[in-house]
Description:
alpha/beta; CATH 2.40.50.140; five-stranded parallel β-sheet; elongated; binds adenosine-5'-diphosphate
Amino acid sequence: MYVENITLAGSSMISMDIERENTLLKLSIAQLKAELTQAKLEMEKTKKPPLLVCEVVNLIGDKAVVKLANGNLFLVDVNENIKGKLSVKDTVLAEQRSLTILERIEGSRTCSPEAFLVSRKPSIKWSDIGGLEDEIRELKEAIELPLLRPDIFQKVGIEAPKGVLLHGPPGCGKTLLAKALANATNATFIEIVGSELVQKFIGEGAKLVKEVFQLAREKAPSIIFIDEMDAIASHRVDAGTSGDREVQRTFMQLLAEVDGFESLDNVKIIGATNRFDILDHALIRPGRLDRLIEIGMPDANARKSIFSIHTAGINLKKVDIEKLVEQTRGLSGADIRLVCTEAGYFGIRANRVHILHNDFEQAVRKVKCVEEDTDYKKMFG
Ligand SMILES: Nc1ncnc2c1ncn2[C@@H]1O[C@H](COP(=O)(O)OP(=O)(O)O)[C@@H](O)[C@H]1O
Ligand SMILES: [Mg+2]
């Protein structure tokens, strides 16, 4: 009896052990299975061919033209999930064989020189610029005429300048002039912003300058517009930090490029700066950007035409422009545009659809008030 009991207890203990063992084994099988799946996945990944990195250069209907690193162009399909989300200059991942675009690499504007090509011409016309008649003529003579009629310069025997430098206080129409010129000529227009070259394309500045000039020569006749020139051509840079050295290298490359082409090469440069005072004079030495065009604050006549340009679409009622012209002495073209917008807001706030003289007077006071804040010009320049 006693012996039998022990045996029974013993056998139930053994079966409990086996059960526990069984559970443990099941657990470890599950774990191994999971590991196996993971390993299979990893293996699949290594079997997949790598994706190609390429750049979108054009969109045609549902398809895209991509450019590979070797420069070859292909018309390819776009995966459903990114259809409509692509734009030109995006960097994308494409399947190797069909080159179907699968993904877009976020924040990946490439810094190829084509990125600076302005393919859609700005819509600014000469008539959108108030005043500056002499400056426009000078710009046309220095840039447009030699591109259109190089023969005249050859016959007369004078050399057209390689480029011009527009300088003067902010908001007076330098950028506007360059855009109007781009619109007026059929030349390839390449736009670089000095500060972007320095801040966005760190380490690439000099290389980009070189490539941009090469591109300009390939696509001649061309105009290279370098806005905010002072960001790369300031004499204040003393090469203390590596950032400064980088800016200096970019500037040296720019000078080398300017020196490297003949004035009849059909490439023209327009520089623009608000800070003529800090500009390195190496840039404006004879044979470089030696044609200086000052874009000063608008005089009364210019202010009048700037007013008429920026009020053209506004519903005016009894507005005395002459008086406003007097009151806006010392304001720039950008300020006058701001006055017009502000006047519009005063009208809207009063629930009117037409703008009265008083709205303008209030706007002028407001803009002048902000103007006195020293940082304003920097903010909007
Ligand atoms: N002479 C002008 N005629 C008409 N609008 C002007 C003029 N000057 C400046 N503006 C207005 O001010 C804005 C800024 O001018 P912009 O050309 O960028 O000045 P900047 O000289 O700083 O390059 C222009 O987009 C335009 O709306
Ligand atoms: Mg500007």
